[in-house]
Amino acid sequence: MGVKSLKLALVAVLATGLDACQRERKIHNHSHVKRALTQRAPLTADERLIISSFDNNSISDWSYYYTHGLHLAGRNESQAQWTADRWSEAGIPSTRLDTYNVFLDYPINKSMIMTYANGSVFTPALVEDVLPEDDTSSYPNRIPTFHGYSFSGAASGEFVYIGRGQQVDFDALVSAGVDLEGKIAISRYGGPFRGLKVKNAQAHGMVGAILFTDPADDGNVTVANGYAAYPDGPARNPTSVQRGSVQFLSTYPGDPTTPGYPSIGNNVSRADKSAVVPQIPSIPISLLDAQPILAALDGHGTPGRQVDRPTEDWVGGLNATYSTGPSTAVIDMSNYMQDDYTDIWNAIGVINGTSADETVIIGNHRDAWIIGGAADPNSGTAIIVELGRTLGKLLATGWQPRRNIVLCSWDAEEYGLVGSTEWVEQYIPWISGTVVSYLNIDVGASGPHPGISATPELHEISIEMMKKVMWMGMNQTMYDVWMDDTEGEVGVLGSGSDYTAFLHNGIASIDMGSDPDPVEHRDPIYHYHSNYDSYHWMSTYGDPGFLTHKSMGQYLTLLAYHIASEPSLPLNVLNYADQMDLYYTDLQEVISEANRSVDTSELRQAIDTFRTQAQEAQALEQQAMSMGDEALLEVVNRKKRDFQRGFVSQGGLPGREFYKHVVFAPGLDTGYAPVTFPGITEQIEAGDFDLAEQWVERTAAAIRVAGNILRT
Ligand SMILES: *[C@@H]1O[C@H](CO)[C@@H](O)[C@H](O)[C@H]1NC(C)=O
Ligand SMILES: *[C@@H]1O[C@H](CO)[C@@H](O)[C@H](O)[C@H]1NC(C)=O
Ligand SMILES: *[C@@H]1O[C@H](CO)[C@@H](O)[C@H](O)[C@H]1NC(C)=O
Ligand SMILES: *[C@@H]1O[C@H](CO)[C@@H](O)[C@H](O)[C@H]1NC(C)=O
Ligand SMILES: *[C@@H]1O[C@H](CO)[C@@H](O)[C@H](O)[C@H]1NC(C)=O
Ligand SMILES: *[C@@H]1O[C@H](CO)[C@@H](O)[C@H](O)[C@H]1NC(C)=O
Ligand SMILES: *[C@@H]1O[C@H](CO)[C@@H](O)[C@H](O)[C@H]1NC(C)=O
Ligand SMILES: *[C@@H]1O[C@H](CO)[C@@H](O)[C@H](O)[C@H]1NC(C)=O
Ligand SMILES: *[C@@H]1O[C@H](CO)[C@@H](O)[C@H](O)[C@H]1NC(C)=O
Ligand SMILES: *[C@@H]1O[C@H](CO)[C@@H](O)[C@H](O)[C@H]1NC(C)=O
Ligand SMILES: *[C@@H]1O[C@H](CO)[C@@H](O)[C@H](O)[C@H]1NC(C)=O
Ligand SMILES: [Zn+2]
């Protein structure tokens, strides 16, 4: 899917103004005094080999391969095998395909027609234009515009505009007295995960949902501002449509029919999936198709600027007043899907380390909603093929990593993180027993601004590695570029990509990518989940020269190399205490906004004790290093590997057992964006103070378990 989110923080965020795919970031004031540039950190021979091994021409070849054949989830085993073959050819000692039989659905047909009160009709096109310049936009087997895991059925009725479709949008509609029962929802993309828009509409008795792309979310780079539309320029092609899954991601990801266990074998038991997939039909449309539908609401219900929601969430850029409705016009829509139990294939490559019980996993998904997928996900895929080649070259020099390295090319991420979740469910004992970190790259390159989100113990090493990479052939390190954009802010993991199942089993995780400028919107529009996320777009606008791919690949490989090789596992456990202090401060704000007192002293104490134990672990590490005591070093490395498992030791969050981490989770009503101390925070926000206090205890208990693992 390709979403990396920064924690919603104290300064203004632009989050909701963006496409759901895009990184949520603080608005940083670029007019502050420029930082002095840093010199590239010195490189060792192995690091020089890694840097020089990355070749933008071969990366472009890999990208071309993946983006010129259908590779919708479960539809292209040969791409999985090809990936494994490239790794074998590079010298990765062992490769294989791991197969699962999962529930997926595929589009059959759909229709939509709007009938005005006077009897005239408008029929939306529901297709993206074929562009002569963009070869894959005309492939005969190109994939229709549709929603994965959408409901088969028809709906008819008046319609209501629901903003971004979050619970707060529905609160605003209810307080404006808008009748929702039996109506069709029309929602703007952006903000929460799209499945939650459909979920909320369904929960309010609505019978169908239409999701559209709003030009306001493109910022400055619009046709109205004088930019030409793709393929002639960097602005959005007006026919582009965002496909995507409508699974209820924040309840649980993975095969919806096998919650908590792997989809293996012909006789696996299949659970009822109705709690995690919609029971009303939904269809995605372009801004061009949306214009007449939105305009048909003008003069009906409450005008957009009077709705009790911030403008950037409610009133968009179409020529309409964004009135609530209900309309007098009526929409008839239908959406038919083929339900299927089908095989999916994860390509796996393994390099054994010298220490059998420590493992680093590097993952990227391979499946795309379209023939292309040049950014999502195959920028990351091209990078991990080149990464495999680079590790092969290191092995050829006689290098063997201390820790096992496992490369994973996931299938069916787009429907709901299916390939990675089933794999984690299959191998969980071994994963819990050996994995020190999971490194994820999804949309590796959709623009020139790098960003990372990670669990706290990975912050330091992740930032240090940026100092070793020159960014896109410029005389500037990745670190300098990243600092200018983010002022050093590492994001908090929510959900939206394959790190999710790892994180919620207590594995240190990072997600990385490079995106268009999220603040000033100066970069070409990335056509997320559209036919125009193609090789042609990438090589013309997204990353001409494939230099972002190259820099991101060097970065990921250096990070993997260090985590796999350094004698002392480069995880900074003390930063977990520092970050939890910040989340604790945020929690106090949530509590004060709720005007209730919640006793969090047990949590406070648990964090303070954790800090002491982390300091002891660090002292022990220094002792092991200075004495060259390998046995002691191993003891400390095990503590660093294992302490995070403590955070998932208390069972799942209320109503969503899959999400077990007590420090971070995707928001129940955001899906992508994270909440910290979610058990406590979400119960306070829901007004359930008894449960919130129980979650203070459980959160504190988990932190104590983590701290006790670190303790000397
Ligand atoms: C940005 O920083 C400059 C220089 O410090 C300051 O004058 C300006 O008011 C700041 N702008 C905002 C929006 O904070
Ligand atoms: C590159 O940047 C470094 C400082 O980071 C500077 O010393 C050097 O002169 C620069 N080289 C060029 C060609 O601009
Ligand atoms: C799988 O992908 C490859 C490369 O993109 C393509 O050549 C092949 O036709 C695809 N297979 C199917 C069944 O579409
Ligand atoms: C769409 O597919 C459904 C289910 O297969 C079928 O009943 C219906 O006739 C089809 N409609 C059209 C217009 O092809
Ligand atoms: C019917 O109403 C729509 C929307 O107001 C308008 O565009 C259309 O021209 C009208 N058709 C007729 C025949 O009056
Ligand atoms: C299939 O599963 C059912 C119930 O889970 C079990 O009773 C049955 O023995 C299984 N059959 C085979 C062939 O494994
Ligand atoms: C916006 O719509 C109104 C009527 O609904 C029309 O008069 C006006 O010309 C439109 N503006 C643009 C820029 O298309
Ligand atoms: C890697 O280690 C595993 C488990 O120790 C072993 O079964 C396997 O044969 C090893 N692979 C290679 C290529 O040495
Ligand atoms: C983009 O728009 C913002 C305001 O929305 C403005 O401050 C900024 O200067 C614009 N940037 C460009 C490059 O047009
Ligand atoms: C690779 O980079 C070089 C130098 O920047 C450039 O000339 C070349 O066109 C790039 N290759 C591709 C396939 O874009
Ligand atoms: C808390 O109190 C403030 C000030 O009295 C009020 O504005 C706010 O709405 C209250 N919040 C809640 C959640 O009751
Ligand atoms: Zn993706």
Summed up:
The protein has 712 residues and is an alpha/beta fold. Helices cover 34% and strands 16% of the residues.
Descriptive overview:
The chain is of the alpha/beta class. It has three domains: 52-102 and 340-565, Zn peptidases (Aminopeptidase); 105-338, Glucose Oxidase, domain 1, CATH 3.50.30.30; 574-710, Transferrin receptor-like, dimerisation domain (Transcription Elongation Factor S-II, Chain A, Up-down Bundle), CATH 1.20.930.40. Helices cover 34% and strands 16% of the residues. The protein is built from 20 helices and 17 strands. It has helices spanning 45-53, 56-66, 77-90, 167-175, 194-203, 287-295, 311-314, 378-396, 413-416, 418-434, 459-466, 478-486, 500-503, 535-542, 547-565, 574-593, 601-627, 630-642, 678-685, 689-710; strands at residues 94-115, 121-122, 147-148, 153-157, 159-161, 184-188, 208-212, 244-245, 282-285, 330-351, 355-365, 403-410, 435-441, 449-454, 509-515, 664-666, 674-676. The strands form four sheets. Strands 1, 2, 4, 10, 11, 12, 13, 14 and 15 form a nine-stranded mixed sheet that branches. A four-stranded parallel sheet has the order 5-6-7-9, sandwiched between helices. Strand 1 and strand 2 (121-122) form a beta hairpin. Helix 11 (459-466) packs across helix 12 (478-486). It is globular, with a radius of gyration of 25 Å. It starts with 44 loop residues before the first helix and ends with a helix. 59% of the residues are buried. The model is unreliable at 3-27 (pLDDT under 50). One 2-acetamido-2-deoxy-beta-D-glucopyranose binds next to loops.
